[in-house]
Write a structure and sequence with these properties.
alpha/beta; TIM Barrel; two-stranded parallel sheet; 11 helices; 14 strands; globular; binds S-adenosyl-L-homocysteine
């Protein structure tokens, strides 16, 4: 049996063709599943009975269960979602004035091992399927009763290392018979996994990327991000330039500011030089601390001094306000603990 939620509408149209039924039934199936949220072929009366009988023999409907829910004092909500086989991932809902952004996970565990992020501490378990990625949104909307407006692939895992499943989930998120979330409202965050950036550029899908840089100095970056040993800042910039040539919109750089590690004047100067290599936006993220690492969050003064240098060098930036720190829902704090 296959999960019907792993199929794009085009895939479902192929299923229709293979059974000799009109392809508009794919559209109806999509509406039942993603709009009316029906997980039972018997309850889809406009789909021919015989076709439904067939579908029942080959497809099932996956569903994500919310195992735990924690609400931060700032309104951020962290959901622990159970996966088959005792694994779990986290999703974080970030309500703002007009937006309700959902931060989704793409892998159970992470193999990239960044030295400031807890998501990789227990290693990599497996890729999430498209149904498990979109299932996070379905479960969150079911729980809260409100529509998610934006998706950020900034939860556990490296989205570009699960490329095909990521693309299928995005096709379903964007489908106008599905969730109908526009591509401007979707952001893929990457640790700088160059083969994935190349693939994304080749697809020309018009999707936004956000690159976790954290240091423009190869020695320092390799120290905290092992991915840099293989894909250093030079290779990364080359890929980003190619990406820009194809897509023609600015790349976002994320820079987690860690007190006393990448927060010096020299670091700010190197960052300023580096980002100018490609049209960009720059997001400074004060490091969120955890019990697992000895790094320290920067003080307000340190942040001020750092951005002052960016300013004098003509680099624009925003500072990300941490959300959900009290419930360990902020960037780098997602670990998907089932117990406790
Ligand atoms: N693997 C992808 C997706 C995860 S996104 C990526 O690396 O981009 C999570 C974001 O939070 C990244 O920008 C990551 O670098 C950042 N982050 C990780 N740990 C952090 C921490 N302790 N404090 C602040 N930001 C952190």
């Amino acid at each position: 049996m296959r999960d019907i939620k792993n199929l794009t509408r085009e895939n479902l149209e192929e299923v229709c063709r293979s059974r000799g039924v009109p392809v508009f039934h794919a559209q109806q199936l999509f509406e039942w599943i993603y709009r009316k949220r029906v997980n039972d072929f018997s309850l889809m009366p406009n789909v021919p009975v015989k076709f439904r009988e067939y579908l029942k023999t080959v497809f099932y409907f996956s569903q994500m269960d919310v195992l735990k829910k924690e609400v931060s004092t700032d309104g951020t909500v962290k959901f622990l979602m159970g996966l088959p086989g005792g694994l779990a991932v986290e999703s974080v809902l970030i309500p703002e004035k007009k937006r309700r952004t959902l931060c989704v996970s793409t892998q159970a565990g992470c193999k990239f091992g960044c030295k400031f992020c807890v998501s990789g501490l227990d290693g990599f378990k497996r890729n999430l399927t498209p149904g498990e990625i979109t299932g996070q949104l379905l479960a969150v909307e079911k729980d809260t009763g409100e529509k998610v407006t934006n998706i950020v692939f900034m939860g556990v895992g490296e989205p570009l290392d699960n490329f095909e499943n990521l693309m299928v989930s995005i096709a379903i998120f964007m489908d106008n018979r599905g969730f109908e979330i526009g591509k401007r409202k979707i952001v893929i965050s990457t640790c700088g996994f160059v083969p994935g950036i190349d693939l994304l550029a080749a697809r020309g899908a018009g999707l936004r990327i956000s690159v976790s840089l954290h240091s423009a100095d190869d020695k320092k970056r390799s120290e905290i991000m092992p991915v840099n040993k293989k894909y250093d800042t030079g290779k990364l910039m080359k890929a980003l330039k190619k990406f820009y040539e194809k897509e023609k919109f600015a790349v976002t750089f994320e820079y987690v500011l860690i007190s006393g590690f990448n927060s010096s004047e020299k670091d700010a100067a190197a960052l300023s030089m580096y980002v100018k290599g490609v049209p960009h936006k720059l997001n400074i993220i004060p490091y969120n601390s955890s019990d697992y690492f000895q790094w320290k969050a920067p003080t307000g003064e340190e942040i001020g001094a750092f951005v002052e240098i960016l300013k004098t060098r003509g680099v624009f930036y925003t500072i990300r306000r941490p959300r959900g720190r009290d419930i360990s829902a902020a960037c780098g704090q997602l670990k998907a603990k089932i117990t406790s």
